[in-house]
Amino acid sequence: MTGKPKITVFDVAKYILEQSGEMTTMKLQKLVYYAQAWNLVWEEKPLFHEKIKAWANGPVVPELYYSHKGKFSIKTVRQGSVKRLSSTDKKNIDNILKFYGKRPGHYLSELTHKERPWKEARKGTPAGEQSSVEITHAAMAEYYGGL
Predict the structure, then answer these.
(1) From the CB of residue 95, how many other CB atoms can be counted at a distance below 10 Å?
(2) Structural domain boundaries of the chain?
(3) Tens-place pLDDT, residues 51-98
(4) Which residues contact 13 (CB under 8 A, 6 or more apart)?
(5) pTM above 0.90, yes or no
(6) Alpha-carbon distance 134 to 51, whole Å?
(7) CA 107, CA 102: separation in Å to the nearest integer?
């Protein structure tokens, strides 16, 4: 197989942290979620291939979570390379950071709780309970594309 390597959530997280500096792990999770959601709208394709799950505190990419589990804040991720990101990818992530980046992680978590993709994926799951239900690309594209 030839061509450009697939972008991972770690590539996106590394770029976000390089641009914004240290942040809570909750905030990083929400920013990669919004980067994925809006990329689906703007580019009509996923930014990274890992699935996003509807966890109790909002959308989470489990692979990223387990890489920083136990930490409250994070400065960098070991995995990933920003070299995999195109100039368009970076421009789109920069737009996410301009809009969402100044908000604290808890605000972003509460925001996702009000939005249809997370709410629909959590439907039938009691508040605070674990869930491994995926927030689909279709649900994100439809909701954010309508905003």
Answers:
(1) 15
(2) 9-145
(3) 999 999 999 999 999 999 999 999 999 999 999 999 999 999 999 999
(4) 28, 32, 64, 77, 80
(5) yes
(6) 7
(7) 10
